[in-house]
Structures are given as structure tokens and as C-alpha cells.
Amino acid sequence: MRALARIVAEADGRGGTRLARLRGEPPLQLRHTPDGSAAATVHLIGSAAGPLGGDDLRIEIEVGEGAVLCVRSVAASIALPGRDGSPSRTTVTATVAAGGELRWLPEQLVAAAGCRHLASSTVELAAGARLLWREELICGRHAEQPGDATVSTSVDYDGAALLRQSLTVGPGTPGWDGPAVLGGARATGSLLTVDAAAPPAPPAVLGATAVRMPLTGAATLVSATAPDAHVLRGYLSTGERSPYGG
Amino acid sequence: MHRTAYLLLADGRFPSGGHAHSSGLEAAVVAGRVTDLAGLEQFLHGRLSYAAPVTAAFTAATHLSATRMGRAPSFAESDVKVPFLSLDRELEARTVSPALRLASRRQGRALLRAGRLTWPSELYGHLPKHPDGPHQPLALGMTAAAAGLSTEEAAQLAVYGVLTGPASAAVRLLGLDPYQVQNLLARMAGACDEIAAAAAAVAHKSPQELPAHAAPLADISAELHATWEVRLFAS
Description:
The complex is a heterodimer of chains A (246) and B (235). With 246 residues, chain A is mainly beta. Chain A has one helix spanning 229-237; strands at residues 2-11, 17-23, 28-32, 40-46, 56-63, 68-73, 77-79, 88-96, 101-105, 109-111, 116-125, 130-139, 148-157, 160-169, 187-194, 204-207, 210-214, 219-226. Chain A has one domain. In chain A, strands 3, 4, 6, 7, 9, 10, 12, 15, 16, 17 and 18 form an 11-stranded mixed beta sheet that branches. In chain A, a hairpin with a 5-residue loop joins strand 1 and strand 2. Chain A is globular, with a radius of gyration of 17 Å. The N and C termini of chain A lie far apart (36 Å). The relative contact order of chain A is 0.12. Mean pLDDT of chain A is 94; it is low at 241-246. Chain B has 235 residues and is mainly alpha-helical. Chain B has one domain (23-226): Urease accessory protein UreF (Orthogonal Bundle), CATH 1.10.4190. Chain B contains 10 helices and no strands. The model of chain B has no long low-confidence stretch (mean pLDDT 93). Chain A binds chain B through residues 152, 154, 160-168, 173-176, 178-183, 185, 188, 190, 203, 205, 209-211, 213-216, 221, 223-225, and chain B through 24, 28, 31, 33-34, 39, 42-51, 89-90, 92-94, 96-99, 101, 191, 208, 211-220, 223-224, 226-227. Chain B: Required for maturation of urease via the functional incorporation of the urease nickel metallocenter. Chain B: Keywords: Chaperone, Cytoplasm, Nickel insertion. Chain B: Its main location: cytoplasm. Chain B: This is Urease accessory protein UreF.
């Protein structure tokens, strides 16, 4: 299945954000869910199981000057193998203009047994743009070994590299759940905060396997491994507050 | 052929300060994640799959840029620095832990000092200036170029260093039998060669396209380790 979803958010000139474009196609359905704040909130609603092997799903996001867009999903997405063993792919590209803010806070990605999934995100932030970006990866459904999954994130700020991370899990990579990588944890994730107006938070230990780290540039990354999705969310939510409130 | 130069640079006795770093093994041992030879094997496989491709690709890319520059001395100074600035930024963006950024730069600085005196060259001056030193893979790529080694050899040295650092630390931290540790390294040699060859093969790509493998516990345990008051290794 191939699908493209596109979200364009613009400042409405009255301190709020309007969605100039909101277009999805199965299995990527989008729903505007106003919450009374200055931000526009959009929920991704998967209308089919997956991503399944062979799927090629693309999401394009554009946040204009002064607009605030929050993207969530209603449920975890579960990467599943296809019939012919071909890989599935989810590609997110986002641009945020100066003074704009993107909060990308979807539910977890679960790498189910036998999957071959590549999730890759590219974010370009103009100088003065803000970002909150959460990635959560669960290795297998309950009591299940995962398939092979890669979550790759690339963020540029004002034209320069800010973050490049590519995490691969699954039996195709020797040592993936060993003591140098996940240490047997089934859940791992990170939360990136970019805000040039707020000084990067100093390094901090948030738990036995959770830390907060300032990047080089106006950004902070919380990174954690955890036994399950619930504990992971707890670690990451300590950093979830938007620097702009709300 | 520069076989002896290659051996000198690979030798643990080369005075580049690498012995002060365990590459995360000390933190893994104290956390109880590595307790024996089997645990070390898992640890080293993780380092080989995740850390080595990045380190080796940036070493190889630095080496290749330096070697091309050495052949074309007419390059304007500003042109010459561009690939190294970009490699430095791209590696910085891949090293999310401030403790690991500092460990990389300190090791790079120590290696650069040793390299400059062992194989003097004007090439070193092109590395971007940073108060804590250049990243270790950039310093290694540059030193390998000054020593006249090939890009493949530079990548191989990088992979070798990723594994031998924690392997020798394991002997000290866990009291493992050094013969068994050497046997483990010998069994991993084929995989090391493959990772090094793959890194050399991408050395010509733009820095943005180089590998960016992340290992969550490498970053997390480096940050935890940095908070300890007493530790045997610097990282």
C-alpha cells in the first residue's frame, strides 16, 4: 500500500494556527482535533493494520511562521511482515519556519516478529523554529522477539546538522539487545527539544537507564531504555513540557 | 608499502592515551550487564555493529579528503577546510552524549599530539580547531594519511581500536583470562574486516550520508559514568 498524507499549518493572524492543508489517504487518515489552545492538533488514525511489508507511507508536514502544530496518533503502529518479505517504510519530512513550532508526539512503533521496517524522518528547522520530537520503539509484541526495524532521525537547524541518529533493532544486527546497545530492554526512545530562546538543559540522570543530554546547539535530548512502553513514557514525559507552555 | 607505519599506529603502545578509555565497558560492568567472557562477547558485537561503522566511516572519509588534498596542494585554504568542518559537525550531531563528545575530542587531541611528532605533516593544520581537540576519528584519519596509509588501512585501524580498547579494559575490570579475550578477538576478526571494508567503501560520500548508528545504552551509560566520583577509566 502506498499513501501520502500532508499537513500544512499556518498562523491565522489572531494568535492561533489554522490548517491550510490536511489531506490523508488510507491507511493514513488525519483528523483535526481542536483543543482550544493556540496550537492546531492533528491525530493520525491508522485505518488498516500495519505498516505491513511492502507498504510505503509518507507524511509531509509544513509549519509556517508563527504557527504551532501538534501531531499525535490514536494508537501504536505495529510493523508487520508482508507476504513476500519485502520491507515496509514510513517516511516523514517536516519543515518548520522561523517562530513556528512542531510537536511530533505519536504513539509507539512496535516492531512485531518478522517485520522489516524502516522509519525515517527528516526535519528542517529554520533559525528560530521550535521542535518537540518523540520516538518510541517497542521490540516485539508481548513476549515476542522483534523483526528488524530501523528508526532514523535527521534534524537540521538553520542549515546545519543538529541530530543524526539511526537505531536498528532485531535479529539481523549482532549485539542489538546486548549490554552495549539495549541491555535486554524491550522499549527505547528519545525526546528532542529544540528552542533557541531557552538555554539547553544541563546533563541530568533521570533514572537507572534514562538521561537528559544537551546537544551542540539549542537542543536537548532525553534518551531512555525501559522494560516496557509505560516506563519508557514515564521517562520521556519528564521532558515533554513544551518550552512554550501547553 | 607502509606496513611498519600501520603496525606502529595500531600498536597499543602508541602513546595516544587510548588505554585510559573503556568505551563504556566500565559502566556496563558496574551495572552488572557484563560479568564474564560471554557478556564481553555480546558487548563487543554491539560495539562492532553500532559504534564501529560510524567511527570507521568518519576516519576513512577524513583520510580520503586529506589524501586528495595532499595530492592537490594548490587548493585554496578555505576550500581545503570545508570537508573537515562538515565531518566535524556531522560527527558531533551523531554523538548525542556530551560525555562521549568530550571523550572523543580528548582522545583525538592526544592522538594528534602523538601523530604530529611521529609523522610530521602540514595536513594536521587543516583540522577544525576546538578547545577540547578534534574528534578521534578525524584525528585518526588525518594521522593515517600523514603516515602514508591507505583509506582501507585507516578504516581497519578505527574498527580495531573500537574493539581492543574495551577488550583490554575487560581484562583489568573483570580479571578475564587474557588468552581467552585474545581468542574472542581472533574469532571476531572476519566481522571486523567486513565492517572496515564497508566503511572504506562509503568514504567518498558526503558527510551527511555517512552511517549514524546509535546505541542507546552507549549514550546513557556514558552519562551515568561521567557522574561517578571514582572510576578506573575516563570513559
